[in-house]
Amino acid sequence: MTEATPQLDTFPMERERAFDPPDLLTHWREEAPIRPLTFADGHEGWIVTGYAPARAILADSRFSSRPELMHSPIPERSARLQSFIVPPGFFIRMDEPEHTRYRRLLTGQFTVRRMRLLEPRIEEITRDHLDAMERQGPPADLVRDFALPIPSLVICELLGVPYDDREKFQRDSAVLLRLGSSVDQITAAMADLLTYLHDLVMRKMKEPADDLLSGLIAGGELTDRELAGIGLLLLVAGHETTANMLALGTFALLSNPPQMAALRRDPTLIQNAVEELLRYLSIVHLGPIRTALEDVEIDGHLIRTGQSVLLALTAANRDPGRFEGADTLDVSRSAQGHLAFGHGIHQCLGQQLARVEMRIGYPALLARFPGLALAVPADQVPMRTDMAIYGVHRLPVTW
Amino acid sequence: MKINADTDRCIGAGMCALSLPEVFDQSEEDGTVVVLDPEPPDSMKTGVTRAVNLCPSGALSVEE
Question: Least CB-CB distance to B58: which of A59, A100, A352?
């Protein structure tokens, strides 16, 4: 058994190639899928780059998601964690049993069947945005005109958040996800969003509508502050994630013409293609991070109480021990079991919504523009290495 | 084979209902697992095993 010994290794954020994890993470996975890592505040913790241990730790209740126990590899984030107060209802940062109490109130709203009922409306929203792109003519920025507005509008309608307020909450949520944001900036953006959602909740208490927030209010189990915290979590999680998958996934397909051609030729591949793009791209750029609540031994390593463990999903989902030819994008493979939505009790609540949005979005885009192509050289596409959720800042396309 | 589902552990991710809708569904109320066929034929064993392995919360198990 080995214990964490002081090392100078720090977490790499820059990537050598647009779609691959940082080379250093791949190297670490080959060398030791669990290894010591120095966090930004000097904390000696661990990084996990192998699929099996990452999955095991995510499912292990001896590891906590609470931010006050957590250390971060990013200096700005590390400073933030120490002062981060979990808003009521913000259950992604809670452990059992608090977490489950909140999640249970929502899971009935995000079932496979419920999400399928949204298909006609999502198809309509997708069609509207493709129509607008076509009317305007090429070139277009696929992020601004397609990838961001579609999931953003869908989550707004589902929650009951006015889409006209999007400039405000998109700006604030970008501050929350920017890795270099200062503690002051993050605190202000968080307070802004909570105030906005709290005001919205108060309005809905007087004038309920047919939406998720009104339904939660009617349920009577949550305070107004808890409702605002849940609204904040779902709003931010609901549009930044699928938006980046739609844009980065399209960029990946454009960069792999045989895979794009296969998907165009056989639309029934779309279910596999969505899972494979999720696996291959693994857009959670940093983390997740868990902290040991007691001493835990994994694969001969002793993780001590209080040590933080960074689970590098980008590397874990490229583990050749789990996925054959893991560094190759293959839309015909079954990538089921990937960790892109996480694993364990915090596995993405909105994953079935994300799947429906992608299963509709990619094929509709490809069908509408048979000549879809990048409008700039691939190396000029600005990548989101500065954000907690990876993707592209812009994707100029033509057709 | 017999499927056991622990609805207290279930977190309603929907992986079972997504991968094997013939056997698994989700409660309309709280999204937790509903086993439609607790003793499916052996011909479904591969699919059941896959669904059990995909469960993120460890709520599903199979007795031979």
Answer: A59
Nearest to A336 among B32, B54, B56 (CB): B54
Q: State which H helix or E strand residue A323 sits in.
A: none
Q: Is the pLDDT of residue A6 over 50?
A: no
Architecture of domain A23-370: Orthogonal Bundle (1.10)
Cβ contact A56:A64 at 8 Å:
no
Which residue type occupies A343? Answer: H
How many Å from the N-terminal Cα to the C-terminal Cα in chain A?
57
A chain contacts of residue B13, beta-carbon cutoff 8 Å: 107, 341, 347-349, 351
- pLDDT string in tens for chain B (64-residue length): 999 999 999 999 999 999 999 999 999 889 999 999 999 999 999 999 999 999 999 999 999 8
How would you list the strands of the sheet with A63-64, edge to edge? A34-38, A44-48, A308-311, A289-292, A63-64
Q: What is the pLDDT of residues A191-232, one digit of tens each?
A: 999 999 999 999 999 999 999 999 999 999 999 999 999 999
φ, ψ dihedrals at A290, nearest 5°: -125, 160
Residue A119: which of A367, A365, A352 has the closest Cα?
Answer: A352
What pLDDT score does A2 carry?
A: 52
Inter-chain touch B29–A352, beta carbons under 8 Å: no
Which residues of B are less than 8 Å from A107 in CB distance?
11-13, 26, 30-32
Instruction: State CA A336 to chain mean position distance.
Output: 17
Give yes or no for a contact between A357 and A150, defined as CB atoms under 8 angstroms apart. Answer: yes
Return the domain boundaries, chain A: 23-370
Tell me which chain B residue has its CA closest to the CA of residue A100.
B11
Is residue B27 within 8 Å of A114, Cβ to Cβ?
no
User: How many percent of chain A have pLDDT more than 70?
Assistant: 98
Q: Which domain holds residue B41?
A: 2-63
Contact B29 A109 (CB under 8 A): no
Q: What is the distance in angstroms between the Cα of B53 and the nearest Cα belonging to chain A? A: 8
**Amino acid sitting at position A111:** T
B58: tokens are 């460890």
Find the residue in B nearest to A61 (Cα). B57
Of A107, A112, A348, the CB nearest to B30: A107
- In the numeric block, which tokens belong to residue A368? 């509408």
Quick: pLDDT tens for A46-70: 999 999 999 999 999 999 999 999 9
Tokens for A325?
Answer: 């030819």
Q: Is this complex scored with an ipTM above 0.85?
A: yes
Q: Amino acid letter at A244?
A: N
Q: Residue B11 is part of a domain; what is its CATH number? A: 3.30.70.20
